[in-house]
Amino acid sequence: MATATAANTTINQPGIIQYNRIDVIDVLRGFALLGIVVVHATFAYGIMQMPLHSRADNMLLQAINYLVEGKFYAIFSFIFGLSFAIQLQSASAKKRNFTRYFVWRSLILLVIGYVHLLFYTGDVLYKYALLGLLLLLANKLNNKVLIGLSIVLIFFAPFLRKVPAIISPKQLTEAQIRSRDNYNATKIALAANAFKAKTSGTIGDVLATNVALIKKFWKDFQDIYFLILGLFLLGLVAGREKLFVYTVAHAKLFTRILIYSLAAAMFLFALRKFAAAEAAAVIYTFNQIALACVYVAGVTLLYWKTPFKVILDALSPAGKMGLTTYMLQTLFGLVYFYHFGFGMAGRLGLAQAVGSGMLFYMIQVIIARWWMSRFRFGPVEWAWRSLTYLKWQPMLKEK
Question: Lower CB count within 10 Å: N or C terminus of the chain?
Fold first, then answer.
């Protein structure tokens, strides 16, 4: 989540403006945060899927499942790898020890993510902090290798790791069966306790159940790690190639990406009706990446067109203070949906819940615009940066 700075603009041709890539990245980050709050509101921030009170709710759920869920976290992950490349280039220009800087910065993000995880177990920051360290190793590889590795990680790794068990299944002993059954029973019991705490308990109850879940399951490996790391690598390549700096060639590349990805997404939408259940996970992953590409390419191309730049720039301040925006969305979700707040989980229909999340995001956009006109960083970004450099960072913008 690299902090963006204002960029100078130059006109290259009629109707097209060239901007520093950071500007459009801030817009993409802000756009991704909109999708993230929509998905979180759909599931009442980890409590339950919001009830379907009408046919419109049902249609909205299908649209969210296909068009939104998973796609915006994919964009967020891609931007993280892209930001890594930008930070690396900046450190190289300043002749700064980037490895030490990035490791320390990641450790601070890990702490921030862990604190966030205590309140909301859907946190992604700690995953970014840990997996992001692998970018230091990945940076030694050339772009072709990175692209190949990212394809394997995103599309094949979750299934490849299951191949040995399929080829040579092992007969479980009675002790192993009991251990597996106990594990599953514990998981169900903890999930039930967490649901009760969120829907009828205090904030202390929520923290206690979240801590119990973290202690029990923190070692569990998740297939989403492959996806996140693969997208990190693609972001690293895009950052190295400076793809978000406008050139005619880059505009043509994003146009091709938009067309091919949209065609793939439409094909996958039709295919899912005829595919066997076993292929559902594969189709979902391909669709997730295809639509994420559509969104990134589409927003970038629109941003490079003069009339749309003004509209999309409204998202830029929220993207610049993306970490603050993300964590404030969690605060909103806990207070709005959980019992210790307004307790709206289960009381609203899906459209009402999603509408509430989008309204909160609109308020965030307005406040972020005001904040970033006066301050250099968002509050959490300022704290993160100050801790990274072990020095208070100037907060106010110079007039």
Answer: C
